[in-house]
Amino acid sequence: MNNDIFPCLWFDEESKEAAEFYCQVFDGKITTDTPVVMNIELFGQKLMLLNGGPHFKKNASVSLMVICETEDEVQKYWDQLIDGGAALMALDSYFWSKKYGWVQDRYGVNWQLFLGEKPESQKIVPTLMFIHQNNGKAMEAMEFYTKTFPNSGIGNILKYGYGAGEQSPSEPAEHIQHGHFIIDGYSFFCMDNSYDHQFDFNEGVSIVVMTDDQQQTDHFWNTLISDGGRESMCGWLKDRYGLSWQIVPKRLIQLMNDSDQSKAQKVVQAMMKMQKIGIEELENAYNS
Fold this sequence. Notes:
The protein is 25% helix and 35% strand. The protein is an alpha+beta fold.
């Protein structure tokens, strides 16, 4: 599994409290503890929590699927996550899983708890919901993402009209009920959904990609903003579907964490003025 790709969850100011909660629920550990960024590790997977202020609220367009091996495990996580949260789909038996539930926790993060087979070593799988103007584009998006990243591929696909499940009259038969795809060794799930939800992709949940060099940074950035995506600040962008990405050179993190605080601060100030991150400009700021 690739730990250079991972979800980032946006918080107003409670990321430390949330990080401690998730580490308690899933027996994880905190690996970075700063006033702005918390990194945690759950089941060997990285998750970033960001204190960004009240601008964005997380929603169900990106949820985290936790693939559990026993009914007791599903129940254990459910009992903790539902405390102060809300059930979006009741914990029950469904045609796709003997024990499954969808919960929005007290911090607004959406979790799908699923008794099922684990894909490789990855236990937590970000799940993208293609709704509104994106409804019907899950297949196209999987093809786009897997062409953009190396070591990628499309796995199992269940369409609404061809599954073992209940046929939904509101869902066209060819739309994706459940799709699995991998980008650079990291698994995602996705689905189309015709329901008129009051939310859509936003910065509340973004996907971080750590890059090795400028060439890789340029490639991911330029490809993801193509055909209707848009650039934001500090390495953030939205792709053509509105999904938020952070394209972050590993060198930026090294320079920002330099023991010389004044040099590190110069790097941060240079980064704050950038859209796409330029490593050479960061080095110049560091050495200035």
